[in-house]
Amino acid sequence: MCSSHMWERNKNCHRFRSAGLIMFFLLLSTYFVCCSGTSDKPYIEEISIFPDPYLELAVQRALGVDYPEDIELEELNNLRKLDARGMGITNISGLENLQNLKYLYLSENEIDEIAPISSLTNLRYLYLSGNKIEDISSIKHLKGLRVLFLRDNQIKDIRPISELENIGVIYLRNNLISDISPLVENNSLTEVWVWLEGNPLSEISISRDIPILRKRDVEVSYSP
Hints:
The chain is an alpha/beta fold.
């Protein structure tokens, strides 16, 4: 009787132990199936470099990659040109990572804040027409800028342009600019093209500042 009882007890223990081992291997195999498709490339899955999905898409296209997780910081640093015109972009955060960018096309979007471009000191051509921009203070750091398009925005203050030493084309049509004295204050502004149509220019800007600019061979176009 005693030996029979011990045999049953050992049999039950063996069953529990076998069931535990089976459960362990099932969990282990599930883990490897789930993880087998992950890339060994380091990236942040939850937080994107570019919060705006349309800007992210434009960068993907520029780099020739299919998925956001394929974007690498080293590739961003090597990018020279980004064309993101008319894509519905509202947020350009993340562009500060494109340190060697020379051509940036962001016209016809919904952008109202351009602070992220302040560190892009290699920029030569900047197109921001047709947005909702009021503050352009960030561009004062872009000393190498040659072409600046800001048509159809909500800009009043153009003082940052007084600090652009290499500018050759300034397109400012259809804004809210009344004072163009910052253009006069920029002593580097010679043999430059400036478009000012569609702005409420002050009388002093028209009668004093525009003649000064023209004496420097600055081509000024405006609506009287």
